[in-house]
């Protein structure tokens, strides 16, 4: 991860997002990493992932070197959990102890990826209920959303917010319109955190208080609703955010793991053994 993040700081963000997308779809079981096969369509082509999820080649490299050291022992799901933690830490965020022992899925689900992952147009109540469906509280949802202190997003995901919503700082909307025309330029990229795009800090929350959240779903956390007070608290207290984020990551990482004789230890993370 250190090599990958030095080469491209965004990679810390991309791997963290892969882990979120793995855990929310049938648990943290490496399913997001599987390529499509004749018997199932994988998650890589689900709406939230297609032309968006990235970093697979970094997991390839890590998996290959782990296999050389000790074959068929460490699951792809565990590698993703560890790599996410390291990416966050390398970009200045907290560290935490990763619980290990996840095994890898032998199947993946495009439809579960489409229905379990929240979209950028989600309302606060949708966000709260989609996280609750995974055993995560509204407070944990708000802490985990702080992941958007790093990484980038494409115009297509924030266009409606900068052009149609009124709960946005007008000068910030104008700034973002420069890279995101009303039509066209769908894949133009901009940082999620306008202040420090590659620093894992609490500026995401300060942005929300200033109505500078980039996704509609981000700004939903600070719009006169139940999460306002917590957003302010995280914006004022970097240490509180860091520790709550770390704890919530451990919890997210424990969603429905495959253990015991469930699943397998995949030899190549892109495909099922055999
Ligand atoms: C609360 C609901 C969430 C929604 C609606 C959401 C949605 C999105 C969207 C639309 C993007 C941009 C994708 C693109 O334009 O290609 C994105 C990026 C990202 N998300 Fe989320 N996300 C959510 C929660 C999370 C969580 C819980 C994490 C991790 C703990 C996370 C980590 C990231 C990261 C790091 C990026 C940047 C990835 C990169 O630069 O490659 N997100 N998210």
UniProtKB/TrEMBL annotation:
Intrachain S-S bonds: 23-28, 155-180
Reaction(s) catalysed (UniProt annotation): 2 a phenolic donor + H2O2 = 2 a phenolic radical donor + 2 H2O
Binding site for substrate: 118
Positions of the catalytic residues: 21 (proton acceptor)
Binding site for Ca(2+) 2: 149, 193, 196, 201
GO molecular function, one term: lactoperoxidase activity
Positions contributing to heme b binding: 148
Site (Transition state stabilizer): 17
Alphabetized PROSITE patterns for the sequence: PEROXIDASE_1, PEROXIDASE_2, PEROXIDASE_4
Necessary cofactors: Ca(2+); heme b
Entry-linked CDD domains: secretory_peroxidase
InterPro entries: Haem_peroxidase, Haem_peroxidase_sf, Peroxidase_pln, Peroxidases_AS, Peroxidases_heam-ligand_BS, Secretory_peroxidase
Gene Ontology process terms (BP): hydrogen peroxide catabolic process; response to oxidative stress
Binding residues annotated for Ca(2+) 1, in chain numbering: 22, 25, 27, 29, 31, 43
Domain Plant heme peroxidase family profile: start-end pairs: 1-273
Cofactor note: Binds 2 calcium ions per subunit. Binds 1 heme b (iron(II)-protoporphyrin IX) group per subunit.
Family statement drawn from the similarity comment of this UniProt entry: Belongs to the peroxidase family. Ascorbate peroxidase subfamily.
Entry protein name: Peroxidase 52
Organism: Cocos nucifera
